[in-house]
Amino acid sequence: MVDILPEDTPLWQSMETAALEVLSSYGYAEIRLPIIEPTELFARSIGEVTDIVEKEMYSFADRNDDSMTLRPEGTAGCVRAVVQHNLAVTPQRLWYTGPMFRYERPQKGRQRQFHQLGVESFGVATPDQDAELIALSRQLWRRLGVDDALQLEINSIGSASDRARYREALVGYLGEHRESLDEDSQRRLETNPLRILDSKSPGTQAVLDSAPVLSDYLDAETQAEFGELLSQLDALDIGYVVNPRLVRGLDYYNKTVFEWTTDRLGAQSTVCGGGRYDTLVSTFGGKETPAAGFAVGLERLILLMQALDITVSSPADLYVVTADENAYRHSLPRLDALRRQFPDLDVVQHLGGGSFKSQFKRADKSGAAWALVYGDAEVANNQVTLKPLRAEAEQQTIADAELELFLAGYLAAAQTA
Ligand code: ATP
Ligand code: MG
């Protein structure tokens, strides 16, 4: 579990603000979901024979001995809510964000508590929905300045019957190479052979290099839909690589699957993954509803922004220095009025007293643009001194009444900068 420290939260906040703007601009509405759900919900949707359900879930018995789980991903809970509140009656565009939990080996880009932004859409079966989701994600990358570092990988994994036919061919091939497969994959040969395609073992991946490919087993309708999606991506000028081995690690997907990957983060290279899941709503007792979505790994997105030297800092505008207790009291109602009048202005008041010298040291360290100084003379004359701490500007002493004008000008200049 990782703390996100104050030095990093400005970058997180700017990413969250950008995401909210992009999502709203496409008409997606936020849904807020519980962090804990019954274990059964994840086992049924993600699949019993997957890495997540077999070995990564934080599950516990609650006081009533019901097995509960800290959510390892968001789609299952979102679909549960959509069914429970009957939200799938019209096309429904949703998003959520928050912590997810997986018991994995912690390393760069892999944590036990991490955060995802999830985007889900219900009710549209045609590939325009898939294209919109991908276009939306690309818009977010652009807004954050990471689009050049991300590559779209895409595939179609077909319908359940396509996969059943493929499964037979795959099991036939892999059965002949059983001894070269990793332990998990040997076991999954019987229980869930498609999961083997998602294996991270180099030995298994080598065997898979010559395995039959799923795309040869897709029916004509799925192939046409996939072709239509690709042509819409062309119209959007979104580059992609069709990766016939891409299957994703969760069982609920069908037809389109995609990932945004980067070569800037080493082994943990997938920043975003998603696809279509047309049978999940009915699995949870809802009426059959096509659906598609994706999840962004926010820690990896932050790592990518940092790798690209994208920084955000938000030092204060003013650091307030006062000569003594009398000057401090004099400043209080004035600062109160300033904050009310300029909600965007960041005003940090020096607390705890001390000499001018020590206060100015703190002012400098704070990174604020200006020191706002109330000395004895300023108090006596209803004036204030502005001392530049960062800007190339003159120190000036002005009447209290002129401060308003100065700050209005300062904020306007800061906005255009
Ligand atoms: P990986 O193959 O890296 O294990 P995954 O297929 O398990 O990823 P998904 O379940 O598709 O991941 O989750 C979507 C995104 O969430 C991933 O692409 C990644 O960016 C992020 N993610 C997944 N697991 C973690 C984790 N343990 N720590 C940080 N980010 C994660
Ligand atoms: Mg994983």
- Helix and strand content put the structural class at alpha+beta
Strand order of the largest sheet: 1-5-6-11-10-9-7-8
Largest sheet: 8 strands, mixed
Write down how many β-strands occur, each being a DSSP E stretch of 2 or more residues: 16
- How many structural domains in the coordinates? 2
CATH superfamily name of the largest domain? Bira Bifunctional Protein, Domain 2
Q: From the 3D coordinates, which CATH architecture of the largest domain would you assign?
A: 2-Layer Sandwich
Mean pLDDT: 96
Bound molecules: adenosine-5'-triphosphate, magnesium ion
Total count of helical runs of at least 4 residues: 15
- Cα(first) to Cα(last) distance is 38 Å
Low-confidence parts, pLDDT < 50 over ≥5 residues? none
What general outline do the C-alpha atoms trace? elongated
CATH topology of the largest domain: BirA Bifunctional Protein, domain 2
Helix content, binned percent: 40-55%
β content, as a range? 15-25%
- The first-level CATH class name of the largest domain: Alpha Beta
Structural features, described:
- The protein has two domains: 9-158 and 218-307, BirA Bifunctional Protein, domain 2 (2-Layer Sandwich), CATH 3.30.930.10; 318-416, Rossmann fold, CATH 3.40.50.800.
- The protein is 41% helix and 21% strand.
- It has helices at residues 9-25, 39-46, 51-56, 75-84, 127-144, 160-175, 183-191, 202-208, 220-235, 280-283, 298-307, 325-341, 356-366, 376-381, 400-416, and strands at 29-30, 36-38, 58-61, 67-70, 92-101, 113-122, 151-156, 241-242, 254-261, 270-276, 291-297, 318-322, 347-349, 370-374, 383-388, 396-399.
- The strands form three sheets. An eight-stranded mixed β-sheet has the order 1-5-6-11-10-9-7-8. A five-stranded mixed β-sheet has the order 13-12-14-15-16, sandwiched between helices.
- It is elongated, with a radius of gyration of 28 Å.
- Bound molecules: adenosine-5'-triphosphate and magnesium ion (MG).
